[in-house]
Design brief:
nine-stranded mixed sheet; YbaK protein; BirA Bifunctional Protein, domain 2; 3 domains; 16 helices; alpha+beta; five-stranded mixed sheet; Rossmann fold
Length: 569
């Protein structure tokens, strides 16, 4: 493709609304343009990258026996109501009514739709196992679209679904898809890390996220360099610390109420009472479905709502609002405590076990209690791991130090079991003529995120650095002075020969300065530059420069293809 015939509107300045590097470079490089918040147009360069990523995904999915289809973006709400997710996803769903006053949903994902399809078309064990996938646009009413194409209201996802007769079959399908994901990310040159994860509203009991460590990531992962343990911070287990395992014997002091006017935070209470946060116990009131539950946790730790939700087995969980807190505790926010709390289920993090003479809210405005003790002052019988892990914790597997890093989620795999098949009637007759629900797995990849993530980890001060596998073009030819007859002849000859040989080539034939051409070439990150300058052109020589390493070699024009065969394999 000739640059002069292409739509590549490069910019010198960063867009004002861009927060992360990938967003800045994709706009500056002419890969995307924003239409509205959360929706982007892919320009030719961006779409070429997108298409190459999709090609890799298709190759790897097809190699595992998966079959591609295309499902509707418009969904009937009835399917979502059958699985209970109509209410769970709530405001995330984009809903509207058509001219017949029938409600429609723009699909945020397709578990309900694919399960309904299989329920109506697969009846026997002879038709299983089955893996179906699609590459489809999804829609979610994101509360805060951000980071360019990384978090949008409209996005492209590859979602696959496996259907098996039993758990053993599902495990085999899951392994195939897991291996396919590893291969996809390897081919896209992404340093991915599979981590244990929480299934969330998708359901099932086991899932893995495929993460790329990056400062631009909105997620956090826990990693152990010793044993290679890796988990999402939402599910990483916390081993009891030494002080919790072997608490020092401490004489129980008389409980007492102290005034704490307008003091509601751990930091301020700690300073006022001159005690460490480790001697405070937070009482957090949560709305779990329709019930209020109190969580007790040591003052220096943060609650892990995912662990709490899974323990309580509720569909939704959120901190109680001010009105609910006052009704449950009799005090405003910041003064809740376990002593005298009536009709409220109390669960406690393991960090509270063994604590003595600690500080809590008094369930009374502007007051706290000191020297509170379990059993004597209140009952707490349910203890579990309900807190966020920190870098001061040990690895839950080997006990060695851990690191917590920000990361971008690229893909997520789920062992769904029969959550959807049971709800939507996806059943089959087994060998004995017994009707059973199909056992399912689900596997998603954020196609847009692969592009943004690669840019986040592969760049320099001049722009993007693409791998050959998904670069918009493998090669860019820079004719540094198209007005020079020899330069133009040599560049045109190289362009024709390389194109004929099957190489993916962008030819910068613009009548622009060498400086502009070099800046644009580095900005869009094409892996190999072929530079045709006046001095070398007289000798039928071109320069071949690798974008990633900066390595430059002078090559006779007649040996250019032979040289490129060594670089592009």
């Amino acid at each position: 493709m000739r640059w002069s015939e292409s739509l590549i509107p490069t910019l010198r300045e960063d867009p004002q609304d861009a927060e992360v590097l990938s967003h800045k470079l994709m706009v500056r490089g002419g890969f995307i343009r924003k239409l509205i918040s959360g929706a982007y147009s892919y320009l030719p360069l961006g779409y070429r990258v997108l298409s190459k990523v999709e090609y890799i995904i298709r190759e790897e999915m097809n190699s595992k026996g998966a079959q591609e289809l295309l499902l509707p973006a418009l969904h009937p709400p009835e399917l979502w109501k059958k699985t209970g997710r109509y209410g769970l996803l709530g405001s995330v769903l984009i809903k509207f009514k058509d001219r017949h006053d029938k409600e429609c949903i723009l699909g945020p994902t397709h578990e309900e739709v694919i399960t309904d399809l299989v329920a109506n078309n697969v009846k026997s064990y002879k038709e299983l196992p089955l893996v179906l996938y699609q590459i489809q646009t999804k829609f979610r009413d994101e509360p805060r679209p951000r980071f360019g194409v990384m978090r949008t209201a409209e996005f492209i996802m590859k979602d696959a679904y496996s259907f098996d007769c039993d758990v053993e079959g599902m495990e085999a399908s899951y392994k195939k898809m897991y291996d396919a994901y590893c291969k996809i990310f390897e081919r896209c040159d992404l340093p991915y890390i599979p981590v244990e994860a929480d299934p969330g509203v998708m359901g099932g009991n086991i899932s893995h996220e495929f993460m790329v460590p990056s400062g631009a990531g909105e997620d956090k992962i826990v990693m152990c360099e010793k044993c290679k343990y890796a988990a999402s911070i939402q599910v990483a287990k916390c081993k009891p610390r030494a002080e919790s395992r072997k608490p020092k014997a401490e004489k129980r002091m008389p409980i007492a109420e102290v005034e704490t006017p307008n003091i509601t935070t751990i930091e301020k209470v700690s300073a006022l009472l001159k005690v460490e946060p480790t001697k405070l116990v937070k009482t957090l009131l949560y709305k779990c479905d329709d019930k209020i539950v109190a969580l007790l946790i040591r003052g220096d730790f943060d609650a892990n709502e995912t662990k709490l939700k899974n323990y309580l087995k509720c569909d939704s969980i959120e901190l109680a609002d001010q009105k609910a807190i006052e009704e449950a505790s009799g005090a405003p926010v910041g003064f809740s405590g376990p002593v005298g709390l009536r009709g409220i289920r109390i669960v406690a993090d393991n960090s509270v076990k063994g604590m003595a003479n600690f500080v809590t809210g008094a369930n009374k405005k502007d007051a706290h209690l000191v020297n509170v003790n379990i059993d004597r002052d209140f009952e707490a019988k349910e203890f579990n791991d309900f807190r966020m892990i920190t870098e001061q914790d040990d690895c839950p597997e080997c006990g060695k130090p851990i690191k917590i890093r920000q990361a971008i989620e690229m893909g997520h795999t789920f062992k769904l079991g029969t959550k959807y098949s049971a709800a939507l009637g996806a059943k089959f007759l087994d060998r004995d003529g017994v009707t059973k629900p199909i056992v399912m797995g689900c596997y998603g990849i954020g196609v847009n995120r692969i592009i943004a993530s690669l840019i986040e980890i592969s760049n320099d001060r001049d722009g993007m650095i693409w791998p050959l596998s998904i670069a918009p073009y493998q090669i860019i030819i820079l004719a540094l002075n198209v007005a020079n007859k020899k330069v133009k002849e040599l560049a045109e000859d190289a362009y024709k020969k390389l194109s004929k040989a099957g190489y993916d080539v962008l030819y910068d034939d613009r009548n622009e300065s060498a400086g502009i051409k070099f800046k644009d070439a580095d900005l869009i990150g094409i892996p190999i530059k072929i530079i045709v300058g006046e001095k070398n052109a007289k000798k039928d020589i071109v320069e071949v420069k690798e974008r990633k390493t900066g390595k430059v070699e002078q090559v006779e024009s007649g040996g250019l293809i032979s040289h490129l065969k060594l670089l592009i394999k």
